[in-house]
């Protein structure tokens, strides 16, 4: 099962300890084959909306900064519970904030 784990922006300022701990976490997940992809996201983005055959394109940002998804990890695990446990470990490293985990369907 694949899950997309998304992290929202927080007020926490990263320090050297966070980078070291996150590096270890990413290395562990990569070595075990669980981590498929990871990255940061531009906070603004572009929105496409289609209505009645017309497509409008609008430059962002769209949500309040605290609502924006700023990073992601795509993982392959055996269960939803395993994905949640990885999310818990991530939150313990980065501290206060919010993450969202959603199952990815398809090939």
Automatic annotation (TrEMBL):
InterPro entries: Dimeric_a/b-barrel (IPR011008), YCII (IPR005545). Residues 1-89 form the YCII-related domain. It comes from the Bacteria. Belongs to the YciI family. This is YCII-related domain-containing protein. It comes from Solihabitans fulvus. The lineage of its organism: Bacteria, Bacillati, Actinomycetota, Actinomycetes, Pseudonocardiales.
């Amino acid at each position: 099962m694949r899950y997309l784990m998304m992290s929202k922006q927080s007020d926490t300022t990263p320090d050297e300890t966070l980078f070291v701990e996150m590096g270890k976490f990413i290395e562990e997940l990569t070595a075990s084959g669980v981590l498929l992809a990871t990255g940061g996201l531009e906070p603004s983005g572009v929105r496409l909306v289609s209505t009645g055959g017309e497509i409008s394109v609008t430059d962002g940002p769209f949500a309040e900064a605290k609502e924006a998804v700023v990073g992601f990890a795509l993982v392959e695990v055996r269960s939803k519970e395993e994905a949640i446990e990885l999310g818990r470990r991530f939150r313990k490293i980065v501290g206060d904030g919010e993450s969202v985990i959603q199952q990815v369907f398809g090939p």
